[in-house]
């Protein structure tokens, strides 16, 4: 064990937790601080943090973080608001997501001569899902209208799971493992397995565990010191079981969280607190590792095509489909632009990046570089704009006499 690393990380976690409330009200907070800290103290900075996490280690850390965040965000969802405004996340997922992948593909064709068509499709799919952890500053901000918060939360909770079978299909085509004849059956198989198993495991396992916990709690069997563990183990259990059985752990975690939030409405604030704290800590560690062990390695390789694609991915590729798919659903122009802008890329794209890295495609280097650049740009841009734009939207709606958003 490297005690120097442990000392630095422990002191950083302590320091940030001590000022977290103040930091969350400023543009410099969360993933932006964590990533910059890792970069500054890593091998390409001061060299104090010696993090040599392998790609699979980073993938595991990102997956567990995302599973916890998805479960707790879903459990905290206001289902009454979500039911009333379900058309927003439904349009974002069924129309906006495919349009985002298509537009990302077209931009890739224009910018990357060294990538094959299926490799470009892989890249577009990797950067289509939004990040629940990076978007937390927005979806938990009471100044943001509830329908936007619930819509963005539901979108980020489901789009990574939806993208998994699409990514695996394009990977199979890019690597030559699938042919034109086998593609339709492979696509159907992947969708049914990833989504179907994910839903069954998430709902079934949560239902069993929630009722067992309720029964044990009513009998006074649960010690207070152990109340911090049930939700954490539920989230990780749903995720791991679904992955083990060949389904989407992300779909399992999100669907399980929704069910748990419905079954444990009275108890969930106390039970969720520890899980949210664990998720925040894992997110901190993930972004520190990303900054210290990944970002610095790619700086010298970045070129104009990569920067251009990253910028387009966060703006036109995301915002235009969102604006078009929300036509006629009720949000104002400012609200549609706000929803379109807050589609940060983060943990899901890191997980997808490690999956693609292990496939050894001819264009893996370019794909990985573009994903890292896009995530880094997202961390900076969305981190700096979350609070100011939320305040601006609230002020605009207040001046127009719209109902309170809290």
Computed over alpha carbons, the radius of gyration is 21 Å
Bulk shape: globular
Number of strands: 0
- First-to-last CA distance: 47 Å
Please summarize the sheet with the most strands: none
Roughly what percent helix? Answer: over 70%
User: What's the architecture in CATH terms?
Assistant: Up-down Bundle
Explained architecture:
It is found in: Cell membrane. There is one protein chain. The chain has 406 residues and is an all-alpha fold. The protein has 17 helices and no strands. Helix 2 crosses helix 12. The relative contact order is 0.18.
Can I get a quick summary?
With 406 residues, this protein is mainly α. It has 17 helices and no strands.
Layout of helices and strands, plus pairs?
Layout: H1 3-23, H2 30-41, H3 55-75, H4 79-84, H5 87-111, H6 117-126, H7 136-139, H8 146-175, H9 183-218, H10 230-244, H11 249-263, H12 268-298, H13 304-314, H14 316-325, H15 333-341, H16 347-357, H17 364-399
Note the main attributes of this structure:
406 residues; mainly alpha; Na+/H+ antiporter like fold; 75% helix; 0% strand; globular
């Amino acid at each position: 064990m490297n005690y120097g690393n442990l000392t630095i990380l422990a002191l950083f976690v302590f320091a940030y937790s001590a000022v977290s409330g103040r930091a969350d009200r400023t543009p410099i907070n969360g993933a932006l601080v964590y990533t910059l800290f890792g970069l500054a103290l890593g091998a390409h900075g001061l060299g104090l943090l010696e993090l040599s996490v392998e790609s699979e280690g980073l993938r595991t850390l990102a997956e567990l973080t995302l599973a916890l965040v998805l479960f707790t965000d879903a459990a905290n969802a206001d289902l009454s608001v979500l039911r009333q405004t379900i058309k927003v996340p439904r349009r974002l997922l069924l129309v906006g997501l495919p349009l985002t992948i298509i537009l990302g593909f077209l931009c890739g064709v224009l910018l990357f001569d060294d990538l094959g068509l299926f490799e470009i499709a892989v890249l577009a799919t990797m950067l289509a899902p939004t990040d629940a952890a990076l978007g937390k500053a927005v979806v938990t901000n009471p100044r943001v209208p509830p329908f936007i918060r619930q819509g963005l939360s539901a979108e980020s909770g489901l789009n990574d799971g939806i993208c998994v079978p699409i990514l695996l299909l394009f990977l199979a085509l890019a690597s030559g493992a699938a042919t034109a004849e086998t593609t339709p059956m492979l696509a159907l198989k992947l969708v049914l397995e990833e989504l179907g198993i994910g839903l069954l495991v998430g709902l079934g396992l949560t239902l069993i565990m929630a009722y067992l916990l309720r029964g044990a709690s009513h009998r006074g069997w649960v010690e207070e010191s152990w109340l911090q563990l049930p939700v954490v183990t539920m989230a990780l259990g749903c995720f791991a079981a679904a992955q083990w059985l060949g389904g989407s752990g992300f779909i399992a975690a999100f669907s399980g969280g929704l069910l748990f939030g419905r079954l444990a409405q009275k108890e969930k604030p106390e039970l969720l607190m520890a899980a949210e704290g664990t998720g925040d800590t894992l997110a901190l560690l993930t972004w520190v590792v990303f900054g210290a062990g990944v970002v610095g390695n790619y700086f010298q390789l970045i070129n104009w095509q990569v920067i251009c694609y990253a910028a387009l991915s966060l703006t036109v590729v995301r915002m235009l489909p969102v604006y078009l798919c929300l036509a006629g659903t009720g949000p104002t122009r400012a609200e549609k632009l706000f929803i379109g802008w807050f589609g940060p890329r983060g943990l899901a794209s890191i997980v997808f990046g490690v999956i693609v890295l292990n496939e050894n495609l001819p264009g893996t280097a370019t794909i990985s570089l573009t994903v890292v650049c896009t995530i880094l740009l997202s961390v900076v841009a969305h981190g700096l704009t979350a609070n100011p734009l939320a305040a601006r939207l609230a002020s605009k709606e207040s001046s127009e006499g719209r109902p309170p958003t809290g």
